[in-house]
Amino acid sequence: MKKLLALTSCLFVAALLVAQRPVPELWGMRVHDEARVLSQQVVQQLETQLKHYEDSTSNQIAILIIPSLNGEVLEEYALRVAEYWKLGQKDKDNGVLLLIAIDDRAVRIEVGYGLEGVLPDAICNRIIRNEIIPNFRRDDFDAGVSAAVTAITQAIGGEYVSDDANGFDSGMTWQEQALIGVFVFTILGVFTFIGLKLKGGQSWFLYVFLIPFYATFPASIFGFKAGMAILIGYVVLWPILKFYFKRKGWDTMQSSSGGSSRGGGWVSGGGWSSGGGGFSGGGGSFGGGGSSGRW
Prior knowledge:
The chain has 9 helices and 5 strands; from the N terminus they run αβαβαββααααααβ. The protein is of the alpha/beta class. The protein has 2 domains: 21-165, Diaminopimelate Epimerase, Chain A, domain 1, CATH 3.10.310; 174-247. A 5-stranded mixed beta sheet has the order 1-2-3-4-5. It starts with a helix and ends with a strand.
């Protein structure tokens, strides 16, 4: 019985290993276009650009474009590739992997430990949304990958400024904004409502007390300019609503809404190139930093 269980376990593990998409060898290349979506000219340009960038900074950037993930989780496969290729220098962990899965319409920027400070998740997310996805949606993979590489190198050097770096971007995905926004505005809304209901100095004290929260949380979630618009809306509209309700009277408002008058209740052609030649990972480490996206 024990032998049968052991054999079953081995077969199960073997099946999992077989099911995993294999990681290609580097073969001295920085650009691996297994999906054949890049033109030969762009592949050669990228190889040259990335080689020169590594020579001047020691940072290693590699690109892997595959037809499909074959059912694997994007983030897990990207981390497996980055660790197998050992991108970045061993003492600096300064490697970056750009992984693109065409059929899955998925892309990930995987960042080594040493570059997470200058290439944080929010910047990676911005690069994916602004440089990669718009071009990929037009099936212009040459432009998308080239723009991504340029943006990554600029971001590492502190020079990247995206089109949406106008104060309306917080670096969060819309799902994160929706989830956190609902939570934050539910709490702020409750206290705002209480402030409107209170009388005298307590009401105005709560109004002033909430201003720092309206100044901080919306800007953190939706970006500086959007946050300021929400803050101004609160500062201006609250007194107007206060005087309106005071004039109308809460009992009248509740009664007209159907409540009790006594306190009733109430989110592309591909190519291969060895370019610089002899490229190999330097032993860098990764810990899952970066960002993913879909087009």
